[in-house]
Specification:
Blueprint: H1 8-17, E1 44-48, E2 54-57, H2 59-65, H3 69-72, H4 77-80, H5 91-95, E3 106-113, E4 119-128, E5 135-143, H6 146-183, H7 189-221, E6 229-231, H8 233-246, E7 254-258, E8 265-267, H9 269-286, E9 291-300, E10 303-314, H10 344-354, E11 358-363, E12 369-376
Parallel strand pairs: 7-9
Antiparallel strand pairs: 1-2, 1-5, 3-4, 4-5, 6-8, 9-10, 10-12, 11-12
Helix pairs in contact: 6-7, 7-10, 8-9, 9-10
Length: about 375
């Protein structure tokens, strides 16, 4: 196949337009009819003709392989894309697309290596004139591994965090139960009660961690289920405040402002409790001074004609550094005071967004952190 060229971009486009179709004519891949230029594709595209020579090498392929398109065009495919598998074997020798089984239609995506050990995700499609005829065109897709590597790193970090968080309470549970079983009669009732209370607290900690992991799995897969029913946000806030006071917090540390009338909110009460509990515990643990909770009506996110409820939790502590605010709702983010899994705010964001709401973080008037989330009313259609 003759490929005319007056420059890298023109060569590339002309080559793509000149690809032969199964009838022996030509097939337009880029042009006014489709409006698609191979360089507009987000993934690398490499096309070889029936002789195995490269006739298309788009900009993404050039970026991924670090090979200029002008250099690759016209070369045999195995020279333009010298791929090896993870065992160092030459990929095109192994797959033999032009001389292999006539029933093959392509290669599924797999991880291969470019010269220098750079990883790339490669898939291929064999275009034949007839179902078992010779390959008339070989279309190869290339993708970088950065996104997959970030995902794998996130999963590895999650596993490491879970293992670390589970080790401490399980070690405590195992130690106390083994001690009680071996020396039950040597301890007083008060000592036994203290040990069992510790075991109970550690078991609750493990249960919470498992619940967080399940929430993360559902949020990431889009399977977080909501059981909507009427929710009294003011009463829910009051319950959490009283629970914190019962654990030893001073009653004067909390200030609740409610602006009436509030719209009737339909949400998952358990999930709303989870959001409020996390935000209030963060304010108490990481903040200082008075923790202020404001509840007020607000326009629903992205629906100015619908009502919503806004809840703002702020403190008077040192706040969150400006450079960290973009990472607050990511996995494993922790404030200046270490502690916890760093998953709570990630889950909070997922729950709020599953309700169709929004959550933001800013600097509070008193200098501390200010978290504000808005939930739409989301009343059932029969109440509208």
């Amino acid at each position: 196949m003759a490929v005319g060229m007056s420059g890298p971009r023109v060569t590339h486009t002309a080559a793509v337009r000149a690809l032969p179709d199964e009838a022996g004519g030509s097939q337009a891949v880029e042009g006014p009819a489709t409006g698609v230029d191979p360089d507009d594709l987000p993934d690398g595209l490499v096309v070889a003709d029936e002789n195995g020579r490269v006739v298309c090498f788009n900009e993404a392929a050039a970026r991924i392989t670090a090979t200029p398109a002008a250099t690759a065009l016209g070369l045999p495919l195995d020279q333009a894309l010298p791929l090896e598998d993870l065992k160092g074997r030459r990929w095109w020798d192994l797959t033999d697309p032009y001389g292999g089984l006539a029933t093959r239609v392509g290669q599924p995506e797999r991880n291969l290596l470019l010269p220098g050990g750079r990883e790339v995700l490669v898939s291929a499609r064999y275009v034949r004139g007839t179902p078992t005829g010779p390959v008339r065109r070989l279309v190869v897709s290339l993708r970088g591994t950065e996104a997959r590597r970030r995902t794998e790193l996130s999963h590895a970090e999650l596993i490491a965090t879970v293992a670390h968080e589970l080790r401490s309470p399980l070690t405590s549970v195992k130690g106390f139960t083994a001690t009680l079983l071996a020396k039950w009669e040597r301890f007083t009732d008060d000592q036994k009660r203290l040990m069992l209370e510790t075991v109970d607290a550690d078991a609750n900690r493990v249960t919470r961690l498992i619940a967080e992991l399940l929430d993360i799995s559902r949020i990431d897969s889009g399977r977080l289920e909501l059981r909507r029913q009427p929710v009294d946000v003011s009463a829910a806030v009051e319950r959490h405040v009283q629970a914190l006071i019962a654990t030893g917090q001073a009653p004067g540390r909390f200030l609740v402002h409610t602006r009436q009338p509030l719209p009737a909110l339909w949400a998952d009460p358990d999930k709303v409790d989870q959001v409020l509990g996390n935000l209030l515990e963060n304010a108490v643990r990481h903040g200082e001074g008075t923790v202020t909770i404001e509840i007020a009506p607000a326009p629903a996110p992205a629906k100015s004609d619908e009502n919503g409820t806004a809840v703002t939790v702020s403190d008077e502590g040192p706040g969150i550094p400006e450079e960290s605010m973009r990472r607050v709702f990511t996995r494993f983010w922790r404030g200046s005071k270490r502690g916890g899994t760093g998953l709570g705010l990630y889950i909070v964001k997922g729950i709020v967004e599953a309700h169709g709401g929004t959550i933001t973080v800013d600097r509070a008037p008193g200098g501390g952190a200010e978290f504000r989330f808005i939930l739409p009313v989301s009343a059932p259609a029969y109440l509208a």
